Amino acid sequence: MTSQLTELAGAIRERVQRGAEAAETAELVQEALRPFLAEPDLLRPEQRIGDPDNYRQHVLHVEPDGSFSIVALVWLPGQETPVHDHVSWCVTGVYEGVEHEQRYEIRDDHLVLAGHATNQPGEVCGFAPPGDIHLVRNAGTSKAISIHIYGANIAVLGSSVRRSYDLPMAAA
After folding, report:
1. CATH number, position 37
2. For position 118, what pLDDT does the model report?
3. What domain range is 60 assigned to?
4. Tell me, what's the pLDDT at 130?
5. For each successive 10 residues of the chain (172 residues), what is the average pLDDT?
6. Which residues pair with 171 in a beta bridge?
7. What is the predicted pLDDT for the residue at 172?
8. Which end of the chain is more exposed for a tag (fewer CB within 10 A), N or C?
9. Is 116 part of any known ligand binding site?
């Protein structure tokens, strides 16, 4: 881990150990992440490498007690997630490039677009289940990198995704 990543893990640890509810923890962790998104040496060169077939996950840190994980996701142009939700609270910050997010709600067994955002470098967002159904994509022409912090042990789970959704879309 870089020294900045070690410092980030300490700042997150302090907030997670407060024992707040999931949504409040996500807000606290957003505050911790924000200043680190401007650190040019947060990631090592190998943690900035993408995969031409799919967005790539680099696990950066898993807290020894499993209470949180820090992951870098590297997105090449056009790459996206399926519509999905999460096993825990989640905080995301754009480190490089631009990411587009679409949030959904389920109504009568249909997905309904509930909102969307274009996230620039330095911007953070967070959420906690329920209400965390979304799709994230790199709609730009260059690589995007985002830092994700999950309230779960990604080393054991492999992913923060609880469920992917393959429901029909409905008008809002």
Report:
1. 2.60.120.10
2. 95
3. 3-170
4. 78
5. 95 97 96 97 96 95 96 96 88 96 89 92 90 88 96 82 75 63
6. none
7. 58
8. C
9. no
Q: Hey, what are 99's tokens?
A: 């990411």
**How many structural domains does the chain have?**
1
SS (H, E, C) the chain: CCHHHHHHHHHHHHHHCCCCCHHHHHHHHHHHHHHHHHCCCCCCHHHHCCCCCCCEEEEEEECCCCCCEEEEEEECCCCECCCEEECCCEEEEEEECCEEEEEEEEECCEEEEEEEEEECCCCEEEECCCCCEEEEECCCCCCEEEEEEECCCHHHHCCCEEEECCCCEECC
Rounded to two decimals, the pTM is 0.91
Residue whose C-alpha is closest to residue 85's, from 164, 145, 14? 164
The Cα–Cα gap between 115 and 94 comes to 18
In sequence order, what are the beta bridge partners of 135?
A: 102
- Tokens 């830092």 identify what position? 147
The angle at the Cα of 72, spanning 146 to 83, to the nearest 5 degrees, equals 65
